[in-house]
From TrEMBL:
Coiled coil: none annotated. Gene3D superfamilies: Tetratricopeptide repeat domain. PROSITE patterns: PPR. InterPro entries: PPR_P_subfamily (IPR050872), PPR_rpt (IPR002885), TPR-like_helical_dom_sf (IPR011990). It comes from Cinchona calisaya. The lineage of its organism: Eukaryota, Viridiplantae, Streptophyta, Embryophyta, Tracheophyta. PPR repeats lie at residues 221-255, 256-290, 291-325, 326-361, 362-392, 435-469. It comes from the Eukaryota. This is Pentatricopeptide repeat-containing protein. Keywords: Repeat. Pfam families: PPR_1 (PF12854), PPR_2 (PF13041). The keyword tRNA processing does not apply.
């Protein structure tokens, strides 16, 4: 582990006039070895981040997949980059809303001799193509996967969900029918995936018809009926959901906490808390104990109806039942306390109670705390939480983390350097892709600050990313750039507004 010279150097650091046992000496060796390992890990992280930054800088937003591929192939610096699963995974995640860049990156990685993309990366590309409504490209890509025998049930699930999400539910059913072509079995699990896909897109009646045919040779399970309970509630037909509980009993399946919690959630959305409490009593009679999800759902809905005291009573009821809180529960509790104006108590929950209960915060926990503090005008405290999440071992900030802080930057009296620092952190350090809401906030805020050119640059970047701005954003930007005599920019925005009206 250490050379003779290294051992002598370590001895110089040992306490003077102290008898050194073999155990003590081994402990010192372990200590210095750990320092060496930590240094190596840090260097690996720095190398990984620098490779990511290099590749992201090379990719021009709005380029075609072939252009991205050629840029990465022809650049010597990119060619010298070590291709790893971690790097490709981070790149695909970075460009999950930019299918051209994602596909170009994948083709580049795939072309490297000695490197084979992980199966989940193929599925990631499938999902990205489907998400961006590139259905034909998704079909072709899946066929390529099939030739290489890389299509899994997870792949099929993503394909079906993207077809259904695009309104092409018959293609989702066709994908299930063709599972034999992909050497996959039609069984309870795959049937449930299809039914769940259809029900989540409100095609519950169609799913029911398909189920009646499939159940003749594929046995349903409790999850099958829970899918329908959720589907009926989604389309506001709670009577069918309640009848489904009786149907599952007839099939020998016992209703689960999910069965009841789904119907409770429906009544929570209706703010029918009398019925909620009746169902809680029914669960008790059926010896079906509510779980943390049940309580969290009720608490969230009571908070939404501004019944803050009633919401906090649910917290007491849950704790008295012995049900252990989780991260999502605490996220809702923080939101409740914030809405109730009890900021000090919320901070206590975050910094004291959650560590005591050994519940780790996630990105949403930090986002909730930051939004709460910004809402109550405590931006400095919110920035402290931002620094905490940036150094957190549990999670990383996302676009929503920065949104309330960006919003606070446009309040009267805030300096431009605060905004610039946040935007630099989001883009250059965190490599976050802005969403529609973030672009709208920034464009509106910059227009009000008489920074039409910067707002227009964001508009161009937004369009290149394939994100359609809202009509009100276009009108506001158009008025500002006309006042600045930015004629070419104004024509481009006007042309887009005309297309939007036609659409």
């Amino acid at each position: 582990m250490f050379s003779g010279i290294a051992r002598k150097n370590i001895l110089l650091l040992l306490p003077v006039n102290h008898a050194i046992s073999h155990v003590t000496f081994r402990n010192y060796l372990r200590y210095f070895s750990s320092l060496s390992s930590l240094s190596h890990v840090k260097q690996c992280h720095l190398k990984r981040d620098s490779d990511l930054d290099l590749l992201v800088r090379k990719i021009v937003v709005g380029s075609s997949e072939d252009e991205v591929f050629q840029i990465l192939m022809q650049d010597p610096a990119c060619g010298a980059t070590e291709i790893t699963h971690d790097l490709i995974g981070r790149l695909l995640n970075r460009f999950k809303d930019d299918w051209k860049s994602a596909l170009g990156i994948f083709r580049w990685a795939e072309s490297h001799r000695g490197y084979k993309p992980a199966p989940e990366f193929y599925d990631k590309v499938v999902d990205t193509l489907g998400k961006m409504k590139q259905m034909e490209k998704m079909r072709v890509f899946v066929e390529e996967m099939n030739m290489a025998r890389l299509v899994s049930l997870n792949t099929i699930a993503k394909v079906m969900r993207r077809f259904a999400g695009a309104g092409e539910w018959k293609d989702a059913v066709r994908t299930f029918d063709e599972m034999d072509k992909f050497r996959l079995e039609k069984n309870t699990e795959s049937m449930n995936l299809l039914l769940d896909t259809l029900c989540k897109e409100s095609k519950v009646e169609q799913a029911r018809e398909i189920f009646l045919k499939l159940k003749l040779h594929i046995p349903p399970n409790a999850h099958t009926f829970n899918i329908f309970i959720h589907g009926w509630c989604k389309i506001n037909r709670v009577e069918e959901a309640q009848w489904t509980i009786q149907e599952m009993k007839g099939h020998g399946c016992r209703p689960t906490v999910i069965s009841y919690s789904t119907i409770i959630q429906f009544y929570c959305h209706q703010f029918n808390f009398r019925r909620v409490h009746e169902l809680l009593d029914e669960m008790q009679d059926q010896r079906c104990t509510p779980n943390v999800v049940t309580y969290t759902t009720i608490m969230h809905s009571l908070t939404k109806s501004e019944a803050f005291e009633e919401s906090l009573k649910i917290v007491d009821r849950m704790k008295s039942s012995g049900c252990k809180p989780d991260t999502l529960f605490y996220n809702v509790l923080l939101h409740t306390l914030g809405r109730a104006g009890r900021v000090h108590e919320a901070i206590h929950v975050f910094k004291v109670e959650m560590p005591q209960m050994k519940v780790a915060p996630n990105t949403s926990t930090y986002n909730t705390a930051i939004a709460m503090l910004c809402h109550h005008g405590q931006e400095e405290a919110a920035l402290d939480f931002l620094r905490d999440i940036q150094n957190s071992p549990y999670c990383e900030p996302d676009v929503q983390t920065y949104f309330p802080l960006l919003k606070s930057c446009f309040r009267a009296g805030k300096k431009d350097d605060c905004l610039s620092k946040l935007l630099d952190d989001m883009s250059s350090k965190r490599h976050l892709s802005f969403d529609l809401s973030t672009y709208a906030l920034l464009i509106h805020g910059l227009c009000k600050r008489n920074k039409a050119e910067e707002a227009y640059n964001l508009f161009v970047r937004m369009m290149a990313q394939g994100i359609r701005p809202r009509y009100v954003t276009c009108r506001l930007l158009l008025e500002e750039i006309k006042q600045k005599n930015m004629h070419d920019a104004a024509k481009r925005v006007e042309d887009f507004v005309k297309k939007m009206k036609t659409f």
